[in-house]
Amino acid sequence: MLRPSFVPPPPIRELRDLTRYRCDLVVARTAEKQRVEKLLEDAQIKLSGVASDIFGVSGRAMMAAIVAGERDPARLADLARGVMRRKTDRLQEAFVGRVTEHHVYLLTKMLARVDQIDADIDRTDEAEAFLTDLDTRIEEQISPFRSLVDRLDQIPGIAPVAAAVIIAEIGTDMTRFPTAGHLCSWAGFAPLARESAKRSKPRSTGRGDR
Fold first, then answer.
1. What are the backbone angles phi and psi of residue 201, rounded to the nearest 5°?
2. CA-based, 20 to 30 A from 206: which of 24, 45, 94, 127?
């Protein structure tokens, strides 16, 4: 289907390594945040039932206070900022829990892990500012393809990071794909009808890399 075999040039392969690593970090950060939410639930802290994002400014301040030893629901709720202050009563109810030293220990570790992944993705610590962070590295690697990134960025729902991922995964030489349908099929997004016992079972053509 492809002509010839699709082997991206070195710059594209290097970009792919970076974008896939960034994706892995985002997945790891999401998993760690889910562990934090589960831990709070175990401590009977229902913060996620009030805050849409427990890792927002208010949520982080509240969790930091819990780690520091604060247990008073009223004082914890008073750390809310912005629109969260409208939910003070609900927050007080959410903080009526059973936080033990075990919860505090794990919460400390988990929050530190989330912060470390954030640093790996977005920026380096001030003490290590001389090191190049991952996003900056991707920006440097994508610079020769800036015009293509800008064109992809015009598509609704595609931001610069997604544009970089697209280029990293399919390259820039579209002559390898005779038609748009070939590209969709290669990526595993083309529909494929399968029939069994006179019942149609629509499926995609494959499972491409997410």
1. -130, 85
2. 24
Interatomic CA distance for residues 176 and 183, integer angstroms: 9
CB burial class (10 A; 0-12, 13-18, 19+) of residue 139? middle
d(CA 105, CA 43): 12
Which segments within 12-126 are labelled E, that is strand? none
The overall pTM is greater than 0.85:
no
3-class SS at 158? coil
Burial 144-180 (b: 16+ CB within 10 A, else e): ebeeebeebeeeeeeebbebbbbbbbbbeeeebbeee
Query: What tens digit of pLDDT does each residue of 154-207 get?
Result: 999 999 889 999 999 888 988 888 898 888 888 877 776 666 666 766 665 555
The number of beta carbons lying within 10 Å of the beta carbon of residue 210 is 8
**Contact of 54 with 30, CB cutoff 8 Å:** no
Start-to-end CA distance of the chain, whole Å, equals 21
pLDDT digits (tens, 9 = 90+) for 19-70: 999 889 999 999 999 999 999 999 999 999 999 999 999 999 999 999 999 9
Phi, psi of 203, rounded to the nearest 5 degrees: -145, 160
- Backbone φ and ψ for 82, nearest 5 degrees, come out as 60, -135
